Amino acid sequence: MYLTKTQERMLAGEFGEASSKAMEILVALGKIYGAPRLVRCTSAQISGVSYKNIGDAGADFLWDLAQKGARVRIPSYINPAGMDLNRFEEMRLDHKFIEGQNRILQAYRKMGVNLSLTCAPYQIGVEPHLGEHVAWAESSAVIFANSVLGAMTNRESGVSALCSAITGYTPYYGYHLTSNRVATLLVRVDAELTDPVDYAVLGSYVGRVAGERVVAFRGINPSREDLKALGAALASTGAVALFFVEDVTPEWRLSDKPEVADVSQADLKKEADKLGGSAPSAEVITIGCPHASIEEIGRLARILTNRKLTKPLYVYTSRQVKSQADQLGYTKIIEDAGGKIYCDTCMVVSPIDRMGVSSIEVASAKAAYYSPMMSHVNVRLAPLEKIILEASEAV
Protein backbone atom coordinates (compact mmCIF):
# COMPACT_ATOMS: atom_id res chain seq x y z
CA MET A 1 0.00 0.00 0.00
CA TYR A 2 1.53 3.28 -1.16
CA LEU A 3 1.92 6.04 1.43
CA THR A 4 3.10 9.57 0.78
CA LYS A 5 6.02 10.98 2.81
CA THR A 6 3.55 12.89 5.00
CA GLN A 7 1.50 9.75 5.61
CA GLU A 8 4.63 7.78 6.47
CA ARG A 9 5.66 10.45 8.97
CA MET A 10 2.19 10.40 10.48
CA LEU A 11 2.33 6.60 10.81
CA ALA A 12 5.80 6.84 12.39
CA GLY A 13 4.49 9.12 15.12
CA GLU A 14 5.88 12.50 14.03
CA PHE A 15 2.38 14.01 14.29
CA GLY A 16 1.70 12.52 17.72
CA GLU A 17 0.66 9.20 19.19
CA ALA A 18 -3.03 9.54 18.39
CA SER A 19 -2.41 10.37 14.72
CA SER A 20 -0.04 7.42 14.48
CA LYS A 21 -2.65 5.04 15.93
CA ALA A 22 -5.35 6.41 13.61
CA MET A 23 -3.10 6.01 10.57
CA GLU A 24 -2.20 2.47 11.67
CA ILE A 25 -5.89 1.54 11.76
CA LEU A 26 -6.57 3.05 8.33
CA VAL A 27 -3.56 1.33 6.76
CA ALA A 28 -4.65 -2.02 8.21
CA LEU A 29 -8.18 -1.46 6.89
CA GLY A 30 -6.83 -0.51 3.49
CA LYS A 31 -4.70 -3.66 3.32
CA ILE A 32 -7.69 -5.84 4.21
CA TYR A 33 -9.73 -4.40 1.34
CA GLY A 34 -6.89 -4.10 -1.14
CA ALA A 35 -6.70 -0.32 -1.26
CA PRO A 36 -3.66 0.80 -3.31
CA ARG A 37 -3.39 4.08 -1.39
CA LEU A 38 -5.19 6.56 0.82
CA VAL A 39 -7.27 9.43 -0.54
CA ARG A 40 -7.91 12.83 1.01
CA CYS A 41 -11.43 13.30 2.36
CA THR A 42 -13.18 16.59 3.00
CA SER A 43 -15.37 15.65 5.96
CA ALA A 44 -16.05 12.88 8.45
CA GLN A 45 -19.36 11.88 10.00
CA ILE A 46 -18.88 9.74 13.09
CA SER A 47 -21.24 7.22 14.69
CA GLY A 48 -20.80 5.76 18.17
CA VAL A 49 -22.07 8.69 20.22
CA SER A 50 -24.97 7.55 22.38
CA TYR A 51 -24.03 6.21 25.80
CA LYS A 52 -26.83 3.69 25.30
CA ASN A 53 -24.87 2.19 22.40
CA ILE A 54 -21.17 2.45 23.36
CA GLY A 55 -21.28 2.61 27.17
CA ASP A 56 -18.25 3.11 29.40
CA ALA A 57 -15.93 1.12 27.14
CA GLY A 58 -16.60 3.50 24.25
CA ALA A 59 -16.23 6.53 26.48
CA ASP A 60 -12.87 5.23 27.75
CA PHE A 61 -11.64 4.67 24.18
CA LEU A 62 -12.56 8.21 23.14
CA TRP A 63 -10.99 9.78 26.22
CA ASP A 64 -7.80 7.80 25.69
CA LEU A 65 -7.52 9.21 22.16
CA ALA A 66 -8.31 12.74 23.32
CA GLN A 67 -5.71 12.59 26.10
CA LYS A 68 -3.11 11.34 23.60
CA GLY A 69 -3.58 14.55 21.65
CA ALA A 70 -6.07 13.46 18.99
CA ARG A 71 -7.35 16.47 17.06
CA VAL A 72 -9.42 16.38 13.88
CA ARG A 73 -7.86 17.75 10.69
CA ILE A 74 -11.03 18.04 8.61
CA PRO A 75 -14.60 19.19 9.40
CA SER A 76 -16.06 16.38 11.49
CA TYR A 77 -19.58 15.77 12.73
CA ILE A 78 -21.23 13.28 15.08
CA ASN A 79 -24.40 11.22 15.29
CA PRO A 80 -27.21 11.82 17.81
CA ALA A 81 -26.53 11.31 21.50
CA GLY A 82 -28.73 9.43 23.94
CA MET A 83 -30.41 12.57 25.29
CA ASP A 84 -31.42 16.14 24.53
CA LEU A 85 -28.62 18.21 26.05
CA ASN A 86 -31.07 20.86 27.27
CA ARG A 87 -34.10 18.73 28.17
CA PHE A 88 -32.56 15.52 29.52
CA GLU A 89 -34.37 15.92 32.85
CA GLU A 90 -37.66 15.23 31.05
CA MET A 91 -36.28 11.91 29.77
CA ARG A 92 -36.10 10.18 33.18
CA LEU A 93 -32.42 9.29 32.80
CA ASP A 94 -30.35 8.24 35.78
CA HIS A 95 -27.21 10.05 36.90
CA LYS A 96 -24.92 7.34 35.48
CA PHE A 97 -26.38 7.69 31.99
CA ILE A 98 -26.20 11.51 32.01
CA GLU A 99 -22.62 11.48 33.31
CA GLY A 100 -21.55 8.85 30.78
CA GLN A 101 -23.14 10.72 27.89
CA ASN A 102 -21.54 14.00 28.89
CA ARG A 103 -18.13 12.30 29.16
CA ILE A 104 -18.45 11.05 25.58
CA LEU A 105 -19.37 14.49 24.29
CA GLN A 106 -16.54 16.15 26.21
CA ALA A 107 -14.06 13.77 24.55
CA TYR A 108 -15.37 14.61 21.09
CA ARG A 109 -15.29 18.33 21.91
CA LYS A 110 -11.69 18.04 23.11
CA MET A 111 -10.79 16.48 19.76
CA GLY A 112 -12.35 19.41 17.89
CA VAL A 113 -15.37 17.55 16.54
CA ASN A 114 -18.46 19.61 15.72
CA LEU A 115 -21.17 18.52 18.18
CA SER A 116 -23.76 18.46 15.40
CA LEU A 117 -25.55 15.49 17.01
CA THR A 118 -27.55 14.57 13.94
CA CYS A 119 -27.81 11.57 11.64
CA ALA A 120 -28.65 13.93 8.76
CA PRO A 121 -25.71 16.36 8.34
CA TYR A 122 -26.96 17.18 4.84
CA GLN A 123 -29.85 19.01 6.55
CA ILE A 124 -27.51 21.42 8.37
CA GLY A 125 -25.51 22.52 5.36
CA VAL A 126 -22.99 19.65 5.12
CA GLU A 127 -23.53 18.63 1.49
CA PRO A 128 -20.47 17.21 -0.28
CA HIS A 129 -20.53 17.62 -4.04
CA LEU A 130 -20.66 15.07 -6.82
CA GLY A 131 -17.43 13.04 -6.80
CA GLU A 132 -16.20 14.45 -3.47
CA HIS A 133 -14.54 11.92 -1.13
CA VAL A 134 -15.82 11.81 2.47
CA ALA A 135 -15.68 9.35 5.37
CA TRP A 136 -19.18 8.95 6.80
CA ALA A 137 -20.42 6.25 9.16
CA GLU A 138 -24.15 6.63 9.90
CA SER A 139 -25.89 4.27 7.48
CA SER A 140 -28.70 6.64 6.44
CA ALA A 141 -26.21 9.51 5.98
CA VAL A 142 -23.85 7.32 3.93
CA ILE A 143 -26.55 6.20 1.51
CA PHE A 144 -27.88 9.76 1.13
CA ALA A 145 -24.40 11.15 0.47
CA ASN A 146 -23.59 8.46 -2.09
CA SER A 147 -26.95 8.28 -3.83
CA VAL A 148 -28.63 11.68 -3.63
CA LEU A 149 -25.56 13.92 -3.51
CA GLY A 150 -23.22 11.77 -5.58
CA ALA A 151 -20.40 12.02 -3.03
CA MET A 152 -18.12 9.03 -2.47
CA THR A 153 -17.91 7.17 0.84
CA ASN A 154 -17.84 3.67 2.14
CA ARG A 155 -20.07 2.61 5.00
CA GLU A 156 -17.50 3.41 7.67
CA SER A 157 -17.51 2.29 11.27
CA GLY A 158 -17.47 4.90 14.01
CA VAL A 159 -13.80 4.10 14.64
CA SER A 160 -12.65 4.30 11.01
CA ALA A 161 -14.56 7.55 10.45
CA LEU A 162 -12.90 9.02 13.56
CA CYS A 163 -9.49 7.90 12.28
CA SER A 164 -10.21 9.66 8.99
CA ALA A 165 -11.21 12.78 10.93
CA ILE A 166 -7.88 12.70 12.80
CA THR A 167 -5.71 12.07 9.72
CA GLY A 168 -7.72 13.63 6.89
CA TYR A 169 -7.48 10.43 4.81
CA THR A 170 -9.51 7.32 4.04
CA PRO A 171 -8.53 4.09 2.20
CA TYR A 172 -9.14 4.27 -1.53
CA TYR A 173 -11.40 1.28 -2.20
CA GLY A 174 -15.09 0.37 -2.48
CA TYR A 175 -17.38 3.26 -3.33
CA HIS A 176 -14.46 5.67 -3.70
CA LEU A 177 -13.89 3.96 -7.07
CA THR A 178 -16.29 4.79 -9.89
CA SER A 179 -15.86 1.25 -11.21
CA ASN A 180 -17.61 -0.09 -8.09
CA ARG A 181 -20.51 2.35 -8.32
CA VAL A 182 -22.49 0.10 -10.65
CA ALA A 183 -25.91 -1.41 -9.90
CA THR A 184 -26.21 -5.16 -10.16
CA LEU A 185 -29.86 -5.27 -9.05
CA LEU A 186 -32.53 -3.52 -11.14
CA VAL A 187 -35.82 -2.98 -9.31
CA ARG A 188 -38.88 -2.29 -11.46
CA VAL A 189 -41.67 -0.80 -9.39
CA ASP A 190 -45.33 -1.22 -10.34
CA ALA A 191 -47.04 0.36 -7.34
CA GLU A 192 -48.59 3.66 -6.32
CA LEU A 193 -46.23 5.63 -4.06
CA THR A 194 -47.84 8.82 -2.73
CA ASP A 195 -46.15 9.43 0.64
CA PRO A 196 -42.60 9.21 2.03
CA VAL A 197 -43.69 6.21 4.10
CA ASP A 198 -44.51 4.36 0.85
CA TYR A 199 -40.93 4.90 -0.30
CA ALA A 200 -39.70 3.80 3.14
CA VAL A 201 -41.63 0.54 2.83
CA LEU A 202 -40.22 0.06 -0.69
CA GLY A 203 -36.71 0.53 0.69
CA SER A 204 -37.35 -1.92 3.50
CA TYR A 205 -38.60 -4.57 1.08
CA VAL A 206 -35.77 -4.12 -1.41
CA GLY A 207 -33.12 -3.96 1.33
CA ARG A 208 -33.97 -7.51 2.36
CA VAL A 209 -33.47 -8.66 -1.24
CA ALA A 210 -30.43 -6.56 -2.08
CA GLY A 211 -28.14 -7.24 0.87
CA GLU A 212 -24.98 -5.22 0.13
CA ARG A 213 -25.55 -4.70 -3.59
CA VAL A 214 -25.94 -1.42 -5.44
CA VAL A 215 -29.58 -1.01 -6.48
CA ALA A 216 -31.11 0.78 -9.48
CA PHE A 217 -34.80 1.75 -9.40
CA ARG A 218 -37.00 2.19 -12.44
CA GLY A 219 -40.60 3.42 -12.44
CA ILE A 220 -40.53 5.83 -9.49
CA ASN A 221 -40.29 9.62 -9.21
CA PRO A 222 -39.31 10.45 -5.62
CA SER A 223 -38.85 13.87 -4.00
CA ARG A 224 -35.84 14.61 -1.80
CA GLU A 225 -37.85 13.61 1.30
CA ASP A 226 -38.88 10.38 -0.45
CA LEU A 227 -35.24 9.65 -1.32
CA LYS A 228 -34.26 10.16 2.32
CA ALA A 229 -36.92 7.69 3.48
CA LEU A 230 -36.07 5.18 0.74
CA GLY A 231 -32.34 5.23 1.48
CA ALA A 232 -32.69 5.01 5.27
CA ALA A 233 -34.82 1.89 4.91
CA LEU A 234 -32.53 0.28 2.30
CA ALA A 235 -29.61 0.73 4.70
CA SER A 236 -31.56 -0.77 7.62
CA THR A 237 -33.03 -4.06 6.41
CA GLY A 238 -30.07 -4.44 4.05
CA ALA A 239 -26.55 -3.03 4.00
CA VAL A 240 -27.11 -0.96 0.89
CA ALA A 241 -24.84 2.09 0.67
CA LEU A 242 -25.65 3.28 -2.86
CA PHE A 243 -28.73 3.32 -5.08
CA PHE A 244 -29.76 5.00 -8.30
CA VAL A 245 -33.16 6.21 -9.50
CA GLU A 246 -33.51 6.57 -13.24
CA ASP A 247 -33.72 10.24 -14.31
CA VAL A 248 -33.61 11.41 -10.68
CA THR A 249 -30.27 10.75 -8.97
CA PRO A 250 -27.02 12.32 -10.27
CA GLU A 251 -25.61 8.93 -11.25
CA TRP A 252 -27.02 5.98 -13.18
CA ARG A 253 -24.79 3.01 -13.91
CA LEU A 254 -26.26 -0.40 -14.59
CA SER A 255 -24.30 -3.59 -15.15
CA ASP A 256 -24.69 -5.37 -18.48
CA LYS A 257 -26.67 -8.24 -16.98
CA PRO A 258 -28.31 -7.08 -13.74
CA GLU A 259 -30.61 -9.25 -11.69
CA VAL A 260 -34.15 -7.92 -12.12
CA ALA A 261 -36.71 -7.73 -9.33
CA ASP A 262 -40.30 -6.61 -9.83
CA VAL A 263 -42.12 -5.01 -6.90
CA SER A 264 -45.92 -4.86 -6.75
CA GLN A 265 -48.44 -3.15 -4.51
CA ALA A 266 -49.07 -6.50 -2.83
CA ASP A 267 -45.36 -6.85 -2.01
CA LEU A 268 -45.38 -3.45 -0.31
CA LYS A 269 -48.55 -4.27 1.64
CA LYS A 270 -46.90 -7.40 3.06
CA GLU A 271 -43.75 -5.46 3.95
CA ALA A 272 -45.76 -2.70 5.63
CA ASP A 273 -47.60 -5.28 7.73
CA LYS A 274 -44.27 -6.86 8.71
CA LEU A 275 -43.08 -3.45 9.94
CA GLY A 276 -46.20 -2.81 12.00
CA GLY A 277 -48.53 -1.40 9.37
CA SER A 278 -51.49 -3.33 10.76
CA ALA A 279 -50.56 -2.95 14.45
CA PRO A 280 -53.06 -1.28 16.80
CA SER A 281 -52.76 2.37 17.75
CA ALA A 282 -49.78 3.05 20.02
CA GLU A 283 -49.43 5.27 23.10
CA VAL A 284 -46.82 7.76 21.80
CA ILE A 285 -46.08 9.24 18.35
CA THR A 286 -42.39 9.61 17.49
CA ILE A 287 -41.23 11.44 14.35
CA GLY A 288 -37.65 11.97 13.18
CA CYS A 289 -35.72 8.86 12.13
CA PRO A 290 -33.65 9.99 10.29
CA HIS A 291 -33.87 13.39 11.97
CA ALA A 292 -36.84 15.46 10.84
CA SER A 293 -36.08 18.05 8.15
CA ILE A 294 -37.52 21.55 8.17
CA GLU A 295 -39.86 20.41 5.38
CA GLU A 296 -41.11 17.49 7.48
CA ILE A 297 -41.61 19.71 10.54
CA GLY A 298 -43.42 22.26 8.38
CA ARG A 299 -45.72 19.55 7.07
CA LEU A 300 -46.40 18.41 10.62
CA ALA A 301 -47.17 21.97 11.71
CA ARG A 302 -49.64 22.43 8.85
CA ILE A 303 -51.48 19.24 9.83
CA LEU A 304 -51.61 20.33 13.49
CA THR A 305 -52.81 23.88 12.85
CA ASN A 306 -56.00 24.43 14.91
CA ARG A 307 -55.82 20.92 16.32
CA LYS A 308 -55.06 19.42 19.75
CA LEU A 309 -53.23 16.15 20.27
CA THR A 310 -54.88 13.39 22.29
CA LYS A 311 -51.61 11.53 22.91
CA PRO A 312 -47.94 12.51 23.33
CA LEU A 313 -45.94 13.49 20.24
CA TYR A 314 -42.13 13.56 20.27
CA VAL A 315 -40.36 15.08 17.25
CA TYR A 316 -36.59 14.53 16.94
CA THR A 317 -34.31 16.80 14.94
CA SER A 318 -31.02 18.68 15.00
CA ARG A 319 -30.62 21.86 16.98
CA GLN A 320 -30.03 23.84 13.77
CA VAL A 321 -33.27 22.63 12.20
CA LYS A 322 -35.11 23.29 15.47
CA SER A 323 -33.87 26.88 15.31
CA GLN A 324 -35.33 27.20 11.80
CA ALA A 325 -38.62 25.75 13.04
CA ASP A 326 -38.67 28.30 15.86
CA GLN A 327 -38.17 31.19 13.43
CA LEU A 328 -40.85 29.95 11.04
CA GLY A 329 -43.42 29.47 13.81
CA TYR A 330 -43.60 25.69 13.40
CA THR A 331 -42.39 24.95 16.92
CA LYS A 332 -45.14 27.07 18.50
CA ILE A 333 -47.85 25.33 16.46
CA ILE A 334 -46.56 21.89 17.43
CA GLU A 335 -46.13 22.78 21.11
CA ASP A 336 -49.52 24.53 21.28
CA ALA A 337 -51.04 21.29 19.98
CA GLY A 338 -49.33 19.36 22.78
CA GLY A 339 -46.23 18.05 21.01
CA LYS A 340 -42.55 18.29 21.99
CA ILE A 341 -39.49 18.79 19.80
CA TYR A 342 -36.32 17.13 21.10
CA CYS A 343 -32.86 17.87 19.72
CA ASP A 344 -29.55 15.96 19.80
CA THR A 345 -31.17 12.51 20.08
CA CYS A 346 -33.85 10.23 18.60
CA MET A 347 -36.24 7.44 19.53
CA VAL A 348 -33.71 4.75 18.56
CA VAL A 349 -30.54 5.89 20.37
CA SER A 350 -32.28 7.30 23.46
CA PRO A 351 -33.61 4.93 26.13
CA ILE A 352 -37.22 5.80 25.35
CA ASP A 353 -38.43 2.76 27.28
CA ARG A 354 -37.14 4.47 30.45
CA MET A 355 -39.70 7.21 29.82
CA GLY A 356 -42.41 4.63 30.44
CA VAL A 357 -43.11 4.13 26.73
CA SER A 358 -43.99 0.62 25.56
CA SER A 359 -45.45 1.31 22.08
CA ILE A 360 -44.84 4.00 19.46
CA GLU A 361 -46.35 5.15 16.17
CA VAL A 362 -43.85 6.07 13.45
CA ALA A 363 -43.79 7.21 9.84
CA SER A 364 -40.34 5.68 9.27
CA ALA A 365 -39.45 2.16 8.17
CA LYS A 366 -36.02 2.59 9.75
CA ALA A 367 -37.59 3.41 13.12
CA ALA A 368 -40.07 0.56 12.71
CA TYR A 369 -37.22 -1.88 12.02
CA TYR A 370 -34.83 -0.82 14.79
CA SER A 371 -37.08 0.33 17.65
CA PRO A 372 -38.35 -3.11 18.71
CA MET A 373 -34.75 -4.41 18.87
CA MET A 374 -33.01 -1.39 20.38
CA SER A 375 -35.73 0.28 22.44
CA HIS A 376 -37.91 -2.73 23.33
CA VAL A 377 -41.14 -1.10 22.17
CA ASN A 378 -43.97 -2.24 19.92
CA VAL A 379 -44.39 -0.26 16.71
CA ARG A 380 -47.19 0.87 14.44
CA LEU A 381 -46.16 2.23 11.01
CA ALA A 382 -48.40 4.64 9.09
CA PRO A 383 -48.22 7.83 7.00
CA LEU A 384 -47.59 11.01 8.99
CA GLU A 385 -50.92 12.65 8.18
CA LYS A 386 -52.90 9.53 9.11
CA ILE A 387 -51.08 9.21 12.44
CA ILE A 388 -51.61 12.85 13.39
CA LEU A 389 -55.23 13.16 12.30
CA GLU A 390 -56.17 10.00 14.21
CA ALA A 391 -54.43 11.32 17.34
CA SER A 392 -55.78 14.89 17.36
CA GLU A 393 -59.00 16.85 17.47
CA ALA A 394 -60.04 20.11 15.83
CA VAL A 395 -60.25 23.12 18.18
Automatic annotation (TrEMBL):
Keywords: Iron, Lyase. Pfam families: AcnX. Transmembrane segments: none annotated. The keyword Lyase applies. It catalyses: (R)-5-phosphomevalonate = (2E)-3-methyl-5-phosphooxypent-2-enoate + H2O. The keyword Lyase applies. Residues 1-388 form the Phosphomevalonate dehydratase large subunit-like domain. Its EC number is 4.2.1.182. It comes from the Archaea. One of its GO terms (molecular function) is lyase activity. CDD domains: AcnX. Belongs to the AcnX type II large subunit family. PANTHER family: DUF521 DOMAIN PROTEIN (AFU_ORTHOLOGUE AFUA_6G00490). Component of a hydro-lyase that catalyzes the dehydration of mevalonate 5-phosphate (MVA5P) to form trans-anhydromevalonate 5-phosphate (tAHMP). Involved in the archaeal mevalonate (MVA) pathway, which provides fundamental precursors for isoprenoid biosynthesis, such as isopentenyl diphosphate (IPP) and dimethylallyl diphosphate (DMAPP). Heterodimer composed of a large subunit (PMDh-L) and a small subunit (PMDh-S). This is Phosphomevalonate dehydratase large subunit. It comes from Candidatus Marsarchaeota G2 archaeon ECH_B_2. The lineage of its organism: Archaea, Candidatus Marsarchaeota, Candidatus Marsarchaeota group 2.
